[in-house]
Amino acid sequence: YPSEFLMQKITEDNQIPVHLRVSVSLQYVAGLKGRALVEFFHSNIAEVENEELRHLMWSSVLFYKTPNVEVMACVLLSTKAIYFLLDDSFIHADEHQSDFWDKENSDCENSSFHLSCCFVLKLNDLQSVNVGLFDQYFRITGHSADHIVTCLTRDSYNTHTFIQQLMAVLSLLARTPSPEPVDKDFYSEFGSKNTGKMENYELIHSSRVKFIYPNEEEIGDLAFLVAEKMDGLTNLPSLNILLYVLAFQVNHYEGSAQNTSSLQPKTLILTSSDLFLFDEDYISYPLPEFAKEPPKRDKYQLADGRRIRDLDRVLMGYQTYPQALTFVFDDVQNQDLMQNLTLDHFGE
């Protein structure tokens, strides 16, 4: 261990997305190759000696306790646990985390010393994995609020690969088998199905971890929500969601010492008539079993919406990935353009 193929694969995956900034400590990790990367894992991260590193992925992550702080992480999957290697700036990003992180080592002020904190989720504590719409993200749920993490891969391939690797590793776990199902009588079986609500598609792994995929109703609910935001401008049956993608909105700041731009996470939804940007809650839904009350905000909050007929042009960047798109809309104040043409421009 490990095989040459595995080392080559992990080396290829050890690349930070170019559009996201990370600390010096994570840049150091991203610079490791092959055997050096495996040795770094065993000497600095692995908790037991006979652990095997199986998969590596760079992804933005969200924690249930801090739903507003998206942070870059190196996600390492081994035969024992999932490790989220974070830079130390995350510890200071939110004042509510004093009880979440053990900060005894965070007072190192030596500039040549770069601290990373590592969040560990043991595979034995894993209960369910919720896959987001169109595999743009997935949420890993453990036994408490401290053990819920969403990985915003923004990439269906990365999501699919990680889920496949996770299933393979879970198959190695020796867990006690589930108890045999109790035979139900006809009436209770019939009554339980008469709820009127279709459950999400669930796959229960042999390790008893649930893998939950969205069903078609989620798209229907989303279409209904989008139609509501359009103030009844269109009829619902003809509304089709053509595209759902997790993206970033670029806010450019001029006039500072150096022109900088910040990336605001948004959910982009394209219908046959409109383009929408939503602020989506990726971590709180569906509600975990221990949640006592619903989240403070809705799953989807409209940030911006424009009609496709007002779209003037689309500017495309030349870089390969990620692609930058600029949508330029005509600034028409009135919804109905024909009214503007009847204005008397020769009157007083």
The main β sheet shows up as: 9 strands, mixed
The total domain count is: 2
Mean pLDDT, rounded to whole units?
81
The DSSP helix count reads 7
Domain Nischarin C-terminal PH: 241-347
GO molecular function: kinesin binding
Domain PLEKHM2 PH: 114-178
InterPro entries: PH_domain-containing_M2 (IPR053015), PH_NISCH_C (IPR057714), PH_PLEKHM2 (IPR057288)
Secondary-structure blueprint of this entry?
Layout: H1 4-13, H2 24-30, H3 34-45, E1 53-63, E2 66-78, E3 81-87, E4 116-122, E5 128-131, E6 138-141, E7 148-152, H4 156-170, H5 186-192, E8 201-204, E9 210-213, H6 216-229, E10 241-253, E11 260-271, E12 274-280, E13 300-307, E14 311-316, E15 325-329, H7 337-340
Parallel strand pairs: 5-9
Antiparallel strand pairs: 1-2, 1-7, 2-3, 3-4, 5-6, 6-7, 8-9, 10-11, 11-12, 12-13, 14-15
Protein name: NISCH protein
Domain PLEKHM2 PH: 114-178
Domain Nischarin C-terminal PH: 241-347
Short description:
With 348 residues, the protein is α+β, with helices and mostly antiparallel strands.
Structure in words:
This protein has 348 residues and is of the alpha+beta class. It folds into two domains: 197 residues, PH-domain like (Roll); 114 residues, Roll (PH-domain like), CATH 2.30.29. It is built from seven helices and 15 strands. The termini are far apart.
